[in-house]
């Protein structure tokens, strides 16, 4: 089944012309954005037949990426997920030009491990400056 466009709940628009077509959405910078992103990535990787362990890693990676964007930037968050020859690529764009940097882990804190998780689960990750902020991306095999 090929839908040209699917509108999901919460107003995001998912465009699909075929199963491996990239998915791109704009999410509000709210507390629920990470859950929305997890659902969107989960649906995409399921449609592409991605291995369950890669799908689980993608869910964790996108959760951390979107959480960081919501916590450290203003305005909406752009999410893109695409199928690659090697696996999955996730991109999260926000309006802050500040590049993320890993912090020393504070044992008492429940926060501050996002970039460590992204690095551990991704084959490669990085940041690309944009005209309006930055894009943080991760590739999973």
TrEMBL record:
Pfam families: HATPase_c_2 (PF13581). Residues 27-138 form the Histidine kinase/HSP90-like ATPase domain. This is Histidine kinase/HSP90-like ATPase domain-containing protein. CDD domains: HATPase_RsbW-like. The keyword Kinase applies. InterPro entries: Anti-sigma-factor_SerPK (IPR050267), HATPase_C_sf (IPR036890), HATPase_dom (IPR003594). The keyword Amino-acid biosynthesis does not apply. Keywords: Kinase, Serine/threonine-protein kinase, Transferase.
């Amino acid at each position: 089944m090929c839908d040209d466009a699917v509108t999901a709940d919460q107003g995001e628009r998912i465009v699909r012309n075929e199963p491996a077509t990239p998915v791109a959405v704009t999410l509000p910078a709210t507390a629920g954005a990470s859950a929305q992103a997890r659902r969107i990535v989960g649906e995409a990787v399921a449609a592409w037949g991605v291995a369950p362990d890669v799908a689980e890693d993608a869910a964790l990676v996108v959760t951390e990426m979107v959480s960081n964007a919501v916590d450290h930037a203003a305005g909406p968050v752009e999410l893109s997920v695409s199928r690659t020859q090697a696996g999955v690529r996730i991109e999260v764009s926000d309006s802050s030009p500040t590049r993320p940097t890993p912090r020393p882990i504070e044992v008492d804190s429940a926060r501050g491990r996002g970039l460590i998780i992204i690095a551990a689960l991704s084959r490669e990750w990085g940041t690309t400056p944009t005209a309006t902020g930055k894009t943080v991306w991760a590739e999973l095999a």
